[in-house]
Amino acid sequence: MKTLEISKYLIIIIVFVFASCSSTQTTEDTDSKDTSILVRTSTSVIQKVEQEVDFTGNVEAFRQNHISSSTPSRIEKIYVEVGDMVKKGQLLVQMDKTMFAQMSVQLNNLEKEYARLDTLYRVGSVPQQQVDQVKTQLDVLRTSFLSSTENTQLRSPIDGIITGRYLNDGEMYTMTPSLTGKPAIVSVMQIQPVKVLVNVPEMYFPRVRLGMETTIKLDIYPDKEFNGKVYLIHPTIEPMTRTFTVEVEIPNPQMLIRPGMFARVKFGFGEMDRVMVPDLAVQRQTGTNERYVFVVEDGIAIRKTVSIGRRINDSFEILSGLIPNE
Q1: Residue 101: left (phi > 0), alpha (psi -120 to 50), or beta?
Q2: Which CATH superfamily is domain 56-62+189-271 in?
Q3: Do 194 and 53 meet the contact criterion of CB atoms below 8 Å apart?
Q4: pLDDT at 214 (0 to 100)
Q5: What pLDDT sits at residue 272?
Q6: What is the three-state SS of 62-129?
Q7: What does the pLDDT look like over 78-101, one tens digit per residue?
């Protein structure tokens, strides 16, 4: 922290009040006595201060998927329970295979028919148009069969943890919304990494950058500090709050961090010039918590309300109320 410039303010530091009089003084002496305030003054200075700002938010899953079939069907078997860790591609739910089996037979028969017609076409026994019609039917059925496979065996699209199971084996999936508000049989969350969404005042919009490193504190782990980085900056300002949303990615290899935890995210914005005053000069108004200082202007002590920032060593950062070179 480097001192750059001294303000013209003289900050008054009140030491004590001296008001003495002898019990043997005359009434005239008592009437003419002076009450004196002994003070010493200091100067406010402008210093280069590392700007670190904390924002709060809740931990969220990096990604969440609600697993369901695209068509109503009976559930044959659910292979996972809430809390299970799953891998990408792992089978989660087996739906009824009746339609899948029927479509498999149809596909097999149509493939044989196409092969037969193609052989006849090559010797000139059937027209090209007839072969093309069967080929089109075969392509459509293959696409439907692939979709049927995906809707019969429901697999996890991500590595994650099962956070919801809404139906049981043998029940009918009807595509009605679950507790998540969306149609789902199970839900899976990716929690390695996790993310925190914070609302940042618009004044910082030009200074937040993708990849910016942050530090995160969680109330549940008071002695731990986690590292994160900005991976997404929302492009618009919310007009009601004058803030924009920043998403911070946090590695979570030990799975200590879970969605829903309260987080404090510290951003470092580099050094800025700040007015600094001795901590003893800053007074607090009883009842309102208002902070103020006394400054000397033309030999007179003037009270100034100030907004303070961080305490650095034995000085307070003044955010507003004292303007250098005023």
Answers
A1: alpha
A2: Efflux pump adaptor protein, beta barrel domain (2.40.30.170)
A3: no
A4: 97
A5: 75
A6: EEEEEECCCCCEEEEEECCCCCCEECCCCEEEEECCHHHHHHHHHHHHHHHHHHHHHHHHHCCCCCHH
A7: 999 999 999 999 999 999 887 667
Per-residue confidence (pLDDT) for residue 100, from 0 to 100: 66
Whether 188 and 64 have beta carbons less than 8 Å apart is answered as yes
| Sequence letter at residue 230 | V
Rg (CA), the chain: 36
Helix/strand/coil for 55? strand
Name 49's bridge partners: 272
Say what the pLDDT of residue 19 is.
Answer: 41
Rounded Cα distance, 55 and 200, in Å: 7
Residue identified by tokens 């922290």 is 1
Comparing 47-61, 82-96, 159-173, 285-299, which segment has the lowest mean pLDDT? 285-299
> Which tokens go with 102?
């029927």
Judged by average pLDDT, the poorest of 229-233, 264-268, 300-304 is: 300-304
Q: Which residues pair with 289 in a beta bridge?
A: none
Closest residue by Cα to residue 13 from 324, 310, 277: 277
Measured distance CA(197)–CA(128) in Å, rounded: 60
Residue 214 one-letter amino acid: T
Match domain 3-53+272-320 to its CATH number in 3.30.1450, 1.25.40, 2.40.50, 2.40.420: 2.40.420
**Would you state the structure tokens that stand for residue 91, as one six-digit string?**
């089978």
Contact 308, 316 (CB under 8 A): yes
